[in-house]
Amino acid sequence: MKKRPRVKKQVSVNQHQTMPAVTTLALNLTTDKDLRAAYVKALRLKGWTLESIAFALDLTRERIRQIQLMASPANIVYILSNPGEFPVPELETREIEVPGDPEYVEPSPETLARLIELRPLAQQVRYNHTQYRAEAEEYSALVWHAHSVEGVTLYRLAKRLGVSHGALRFRLARYGYLTPKTGKSKCYQPVKQTNRAVTQ
Predict the structure, then answer these.
(1) Is the pTM of this model over 0.85?
(2) 2 neighbors 103 (Cβ within 8 angstroms)
C-alpha cells in the first residue's frame, strides 16, 4: 500500500455553532408543522447540529431528531428555494488537510496469474515430499517478489490468492525471506536445506 495522500477538506470551525438571530426568528415564526419539519431538515442538510437547532427552538435534541423525520422532500425543496423567508445559513468553516483514501498496490497481471497457477501445487508440498518442491520454491519466491519489489501488502496478496495473510507470512519465514520477531510456532521453522529444491 502506498502512502495515503493528503487531501483538503472543509470542516466546521465549531460543531455547535449558534444559529444566526434571523434564522432563529424565522424558525420560531414557522408555525406550520410540515414546513417546520422541512425547515429543520434543511438546516440539518446544511450541517447544523441537533443541539444548535434544539437551542434555537428551546426543544430537546431528541425532539428535533423526531421532527426532521417528518419532513417531505417537496417541502424541503420549497424551503431551500425561498431563502428570503426561510434563511438557511452556511456553517462557518475552515480548510484542513486530512489523509485521503489509501492507494492499494495490486500485483502485476503476470505475477498474479503465475501465483494462481502455482498455488495448488505449492500447497501440496509437506515435510520431505519431493513432488512439486520446485513449484513451491518458485511460488514462495514470487510471493516475496510481489511483496518486496512490487509493493503489494500481504493482506491484499492473500485476498487475491484466496489464502490468509498469516499463511503467506509463515511461508516467507519457512523459505528464509522473513525472520519472525516473536513466536516459536512450528509454522515459522525453516525448511531443512536437504528438503529444498535444487535451484538453477
Answers:
(1) no
(2) yes
